[in-house]
Write a structure and sequence with these properties.
Helices cover 40% and strands 14% of the residues. It has 292 residues and is an alpha/beta fold.
């Protein structure tokens, strides 16, 4: 596919877990890519045929060079909302399409219905996007499979019991690569304008079962033990904001006893089944073993 006529796509959050893969998918499709990074040294990790711009959503005028001549933007918003109005004014003046990485905060499932500071921010940003009148697509990944090493790898590497709260809570972990592929596809293909997609993995698994899958892939049994929410709070001190810890605990608590919310959006858009959690683990086994 030759896309030389295509205006470049600007990827924000370019060095993040999803943004980095979005860049690869766009390049595979022959789409010219620009990357927005906070620090110019981050450019070293990006492919050489990506045009890198330094800029910051909290400094709206810093975006002008990156936006001039761009056709679409993959938007990851991690900044406070104060500068949103000025940023969207600029986006509306330059690009014709925005694909926004949001969260499933409107989804009628208890996991996603707990008070969540991120959800409030995402809802704000979605209102700004709607007000621009620019073509837009919202993608809402559920729990990411790539959270699992941060949660469980240190215990698994040390050969210890994995202790975790709400082992019976069910989620449908989605592979970052599927999220990125959907984002890239909707950035350069027509037919998804106005689309709003909740992206999940193909199956509902309890957290304890997810640890079991990791053990299967590594070829050893990993013991799982329930931890109390209070223990989790005290262990998380200093590693994660208490609002995030409270949000996770509330979500998992609400999710106990019922299957996770599972959608077919990945398959509907890409035409291929979403990757399973087992496949994610198999492809990232070194994250749990410490081998390189």
């Amino acid at each position: 596919m030759n896309h030389t006529h295509l205006a470049p796509v600007l990827v924000t959050g370019a060095t993040g877990r999803i943004g980095r893969v979005v860049i690869d998918r766009l390049l595979d499709a022959g789409v010219p890519v620009r990357a927005l990074t906070h620090r110019s040294e981050a450019a070293a990790t990006l492919p050489t045929n990506v045009k890198v711009f330094t800029g910051d959503l909290t400094v709206p005028e810093s975006l002008d060079p990156a936006l001039t001549g761009a056709g679409a933007v993959f938007l990851v918003w991690t900044a406070p909302p104060q500068t949103a109005a000025a940023v969207f004014e600029r986006l509306a003046a330059h690009v014709r399409r925005i694909v926004f990485l949001s969260s499933p905060h409107q989804t009628p499932h208890p996991l996603f219905q707990q008070p969540n500071p991120m959800a409030a921010l995402h809802a704000d940003i979605e209102r700004f996007i709607a007000a621009t009148g620019v073509e837009s697509t919202i993608i809402r990944p559920g729990m990411l499979a790539s959270n699992s090493p941060a949660w469980w790898a240190s215990a698994i590497r040390a050969g210890e019991v994995v202790r975790w709260p709400y082992g019976a809570a069910e989620t449908a972990p989605v592979d970052d690569r599927d999220v990125a592929a959907v984002a890239a596809w909707t950035l350069h293909q027509d037919g998804y304008v106005g689309g709003d997609y909740v992206l999940t993995g193909p199956e509902s698994l309890t957290q304890a079962a997810q640890v079991g899958v990791i053990g299967d892939v590594l070829g050893r049994r990993i013991a799982f033990e329930e931890m109390t929410p209070d223990e989790f709070r005290s262990l998380s001190e200093g590693t994660a904001p208490s609002s995030v810890v409270d949000m996770l605990l509330a979500a998992w608590s609400a999710a106990v006893g019922q299957p996770a919310y599972v959608t077919t959006a990945v398959a509907d858009i890409l035409g291929t089944a979403p990757r399973t959690f087992r496949q994610w683990v198999a492809d990232h086994a070194t994250a749990f073993t410490g081998d390189r």
